[in-house]
Structures are given as C-alpha cells and as structure tokens.
Amino acid sequence: MLILTLVAACASNPLLINNINKRQDRLEAEVEKLSSELAEIKIEKDERISLMQQDIASIAKDYSSLKKKLDRLEKQSSTSDPATAKSPDDLYSSAESFYHKRKYEEAIIAYQKFIDANPKDNRAPDSYLKQGISLIKLGRKKEARYFLQTIIDKYPESGEAKIAKINLKILNE
C-alpha cells in the first residue's frame, strides 16, 4: 500500500521525481569517486610493499657482504696466529679502536666478532649500538635500523636501547 502511495505521489509530482534522480546521480558520483580513491590507495599500498621488499633484499645483500668480510677477517686473523685466541677485552678493545679512529667498516666487523664470541657480555648492547651508529655515519641508514632495533628487542631496559630509540626516531623522520 505504501509503495502505491509513493508511486502515485511521484506520478503526480514530477519535481519529486527530478529530486530523486538528482540525488541518485550524486550518490552514483560519490560511489565512483570512492571507488577511484580506493583503487589509488591499493596502488600506493602495492608500491610501498614493493619498496619494502626491495629494502629487505638490499639489507640482506648488505648483511651478506658484511658477513663475507667478517669471514675473511676471521680467516686472516686465524691464519696469522692460530695459537692466539683473543680475549673478550682484546676483541672489544680492537672494535673500540676502529670506532674511535672512524674506521667504521672495520669497527662494525670487529664489534660483530666480539658479539659472536661473547653474546652475553654486558658490552654486547654497546657493540650493537656502535654498529648502528657506524652504519649511520657511513650513510647506510637502512642497515643501521636493523642494529638499532636489535638493541631494543634484545635489551629493552638498557641505556643503549633508549639511545637506539632516539636514533631510530631521527632516522624515521
């Protein structure tokens, strides 16, 4: 009954029909606009995912390169004097020396050697932090993020984690 009343009202009032048609046109235009925006968002999301995948591949490649350099250095040090095993203090001191001489590539490798040999040493968080800072100074910010995040994940309550959070924040700006 209600439908018949509406149909009769519409038939007798062309202005009402015209209003309904205009509203329908506006709604269809809005739906089209939203569909277009949604498609743009999907494209942007796909592009971001692609960039992230490229970043991950780049970091993996750089990590592999650093690991190869570390392996070469380990072979060199083991062949130069296999009877001499370096103490944790010697390893850390060597890394610190490279770092303070601004030989950041060598420092990164030396800190990693220290961490690998002494993962539970109380200087491990500082070693990760200095690896991250060294990478920042070398302009390798993506890799630096990895080391800074490692400190936050492994040593969340440490002073180094607080410093890492600040550096991550600066890197992400």
In short:
Helix content is 84%, strand content 0%. By secondary structure, the protein is mostly helical.
Would you mind describing this structure in some detail?
By secondary structure, the chain is mostly helical. It folds into 2 domains: 49 residues; 89 residues, Serine Threonine Protein Phosphatase 5, Tetratricopeptide repeat (Alpha Horseshoe). The protein contains 7 helices and no strands. The chain is elongated and about 100 Å long. About 3% of the residues have low confidence.
Mean pLDDT level: 85
Q: Which structural category do the helix and sheet elements fall into? A: mainly alpha
Helix content: over 70%
The rough form would be described as elongated
Q: Looking at this structure, what is the CATH superfamily of the largest domain? A: Tetratricopeptide repeat domain
Terminal residue distance: 64 Å
List the total number of helices.
Answer: 7
Task: Outline the low-pLDDT stretches.
Answer: 79-84
Count of DSSP strands: 0
Number of folding domains?
A: 2
Largest sheet geometry: none
* Beta strand %: under 5%
The CATH level-2 architecture of the largest domain is identified as Alpha Horseshoe
CATH fold group of the largest domain: Serine Threonine Protein Phosphatase 5, Tetratricopeptide repeat
CATH C-level class of the largest domain is Mainly Alpha
**What is the succession of H and E elements?**
HHHHHHH
What is the radius of gyration?
31 Å
